[in-house]
Design goal:
Length: 447
């Protein structure tokens, strides 16, 4: 199988793709749903419901304000129990709508396919759907698809790499819905006038590559022409699915420091995002459910499930034979880039793609020792950064040095921490360094 060139650096963590071959199960048995009003980058939504209000599936319950926000919809039918503020796992206070589900999943009357006939109506529909990038970052998709004046996109890149250990939710998406994935890609190409699309999948998922190629062949037989979409098996190397790495691997184009994919003519969407687009255009049902991988030594039944957004994490864990209270560590996301939860009264959000539950042994934090200047972190960094310099600049809160060593280019992939024999907390320290730079910038702007 032909492989494109690859980026420098990167690591080979154990894949642990234990749930590859288990079809996704739909879970509906949730009595209590908690929907946060902030599930995207950008300002939080304003609740449009109050305690005692009846709600239905797909009904808007959070109104978006500003270009970087998307509305939030109810994922169940039932009664709003409260609208309150809670402390999220990030430590921030967030407004949440708690709903008692009636278990009926009655659809809201207003659900209907959106009227889309050009780029503007398409982008409006995508915003109304509440869609954020489903690969993990939570960036509103309509904003990502809005190509700035003076720029053009000549390639749509679909990220199906799924390089994070354990997670197989995108793989299941490919295996179970290849037709809607290709349909979603064609819709985006059509309304954004992008002439070609490339789908990147790590070569440890040959079935995903095969089913998508078969889908293209079916279209060719039916329409007598092959869509300008190509499916590429890529070297299995973490972080192949990082936007910058994927673009470089597929097109040989390098995004400049501080730049965006559109600066090199690319628009990048996750494979689950395009499948959602196809479904939404057909049905008008907003983003109210999420496919996630459940795995880790703390679960008896590793699996992929489709759950309502807002399902409480302990309930989801219980389904897979785990106990949130007894777990040593719960990670929202993958084992390389996910966030360890420090509280359990939290729920599944739109861009959540996995919950990993581990026992106390795996939760032990290794003891940091002195840097031995081995250079492994530098070799592993896919962004050509100097993690060890950034670490020391961060610990010294030296903003000038952090900028000199391009701290904001760090994609927080964790490769440096993964290879460090001294167990230095590099990515955590670099993340803190970014915070110092942002703070200094905002102080400067306020002068
Ligand atoms: S976390 Fe940042 S510094 Fe470390 S390897 Fe990844 S990009 Fe490089
Ligand atoms: S890998 Fe760890 S020990 Fe080696 S240079 Fe980097 S920080 Fe130092």
């Amino acid at each position: 199988m032909f492989k494109f060139g690859h980026f420098s650096g990167g690591v080979h963590p154990k894949g642990n793709k234990n749930t590859h071959f288990f079809p996704t199960m739909r879970l509906d048995d949730f009595k209590h749903i908690r929907i946060p009003m902030s599930m995207h980058i950008g300002p939080p939504c304003t609740p449009t419901v109050k305690a005692g209000d009846p709600v239905m599936v797909g009904q808007m319950i959070g109104e978006a304000t500003g270009p970087l926000a998307v509305p939030i919809h109810s994922s169940v039918s039932g009664i709003v129990k409260s609208v309150s503020r809670v402390v999220a796992s990030s430590g921030n206070s967030v407004e949440v709508v708690d709903i008692e589900s009636d278990g009926q999943y009655t659809r809201h009357d207003a659900i209907a396919p959106p009227i889309v006939n050009d780029r503007d109506t398409f982008l409006k529909a995508i915003r109304d759907s509440g869609l954020v990038g489903l690969g993990g970052a939570g960036f509103p998709t309509h904003a990502k698809l809005r190509i700035p004046e003076g720029k053009t996109a000549d390639v749509l890149i679909i990220n199906a790499a799924e390089c994070e250990p354990y997670i197989t939710a995108d793989f299941r998406q490919c295996a179970e819905h290849p037709d809607e994935i290709i349909e979603g890609i064609r819709i985006v190409m059509h309304y954004l006038d992008i002439p070609k699309a490339m789908v990147g999948i790590e070569d440890n998922k040959p079935l995903a590559i095969e089913v998508l190629r078969n889908e293209l062949t079916k279209i060719e037989l039916k329409e007598n022409t092959r869509p300008a979409i190509s499916i590429h098996g890529l070297r299995t190397l973490y972080p192949q699915g990082a936007e910058k790495m994927l673009i470089y691997t597929l097109t040989n184009r390098e995004i400049p420091s501080g730049g965006l994919p559109i600066d090199v003519g690319a628009v990048v969407l996750n494979v689950s995002t395009v499948r959602f687009i196809a479904k939404y255009i057909k049905t008008g049902m907003p983003l109210v459910r999420k496919r996630i991988t459940l795995d880790g030594s703390g679960l008896k039944i590793p699996c992929n499930v489709n759950v309502p957004v807002g399902a409480m994490i302990p309930d989801v864990i219980k389904f897979a034979g785990g106990d949130a209270e007894a777990a040593g560590k719960i990670i929202m996301g993958g084992s390389m880039m996910g966030v360890a939860l420090d509280r359990f009264d939290t729920s599944i959000i739109k861009h959540n793609n996995a919950i990993l539950v581990f026992g106390t042994k795996e939760a032990e934090i290794p003891q940091e020792t002195q840097c031995i200047r081995c250079g492994r972190c530098v070799e592993a960094c896919p962004m050509h950064l100097m993690p060890t310099q950034l670490d020391s600049a961060s610990r010294n809160k030296d903003v000038t040095e952090l900028n000199d060593y391009f701290v904001m280019d760090c994609i927080e992939c964790g490769c440096c921490t993964f290879v460090c024999p001294a167990k230095r907390y590099l990515v955590q320290s670099i993340r803190a360094g970014k915070g110092y730079v942002r703070l200094a910038k905002s102080k400067e702007a306020a002068k």
